[in-house]
Structures are given as C-alpha cells and as structure tokens.
Amino acid sequence: MHTEWIPRSARLPDADAIADFNRALARETEGRELDPAKIGPGVRVVLGDATKGRYYVVESGGVVVGQLMLTFEWSDWRNGMFWWIQSVYVRADHRGRGVFAALYRHVEAEARANPGVCGLRLYMEHENNRARAAYVKIGMRAPGYEVFEVDFTG
C-alpha cells in the first residue's frame, strides 16, 4: 500500500469534492447525469448525520483523490449490522495505485473491531469489470443476490 494513502473521515469542507465524484461516478458507470441541486445537499446530509451514512476519503497533496460511503442495514438473520460500501470513486489519474484498497482496508478494520457489524457488502454495475476485479482482489465475493428497486425520484 502506498504510504501516502491514509483514509480519514470526510468533513463538511470535502462536500463539493464528494458531490463532484458522485456525479462523475454516475456518468462513468451508468451514463447518468446527477442533479447538482440534489447531490450536493444529499452529500451534506450524510456529512451532518452519521445515522444516514459516513464518507471516507483519501487525499494526495491536500486534494481528495478517492472516496467511499458507508450505509447501514440491519440483518435479523445475523443479529448484526451490514455496512454497505457505496459511492466508491477514485480519480482517474490515481486508479490502480491502491487508493481504493486503502479505503477498503480502513473500513474493514473498523468493521471487524465493531462487534455489532456482521459483514460488508456493496453493489456495482454488472459491466464494471475493472471494479469487479478490484473487489475480488481484496477478498470480496459475489453472494448470488441481485438488487431490485423502484426509484421514486425518476
């Protein structure tokens, strides 16, 4: 791991970078344009309310170059909380350099240290082979579930 990649909890001054990364993520993976009037305030809600989720970032030279967000799902089957990894994004010029691995290992260590956490999960676009390779490389596996949704926002 690159010694420079030290994940930290995101703070309110990171909100614009996180919103920009989320817009880039949607564009790159889904060809979708996110509404800046929604994503900016949405990011700020998470940064102000840890019950909604938590963002972690990695910086290089004082500039955010990678992020991920955690959200939470109670599992009655396991009597514990799954931490869902979402909004994973690494700036293109920093991909393949261990930024995501550093973020993941940080979150994994926190999860393992918390007895109420029963596991980590994430979802990704089916065709995102680069992401799939990164997730397999760090030891994650596809459990065989598919995600279905009804999106009331459009």
Quick take:
34% of the residues lie in helices and 25% in strands. The protein is of the alpha+beta class.
Describe what this molecule looks like in 3D.
α1 packs across α2. The protein is built from four helices and five strands. 21% of the residues are buried. It is globular. The longest helix has 16 residues, at 15-30. It is 34% helix and 25% strand. It has a single domain (8-137), classed as Gcn5-related N-acetyltransferase (GNAT) (Aminopeptidase), CATH 3.40.630. With 154 residues, it is an alpha+beta fold. The chain has a five-stranded mixed beta sheet with strand order 1-2-3-4-5. The protein has helices at 15-30, 36-48, 99-113, 129-137, and strands at residues 8-9, 54-60, 63-75, 80-90, 117-122.
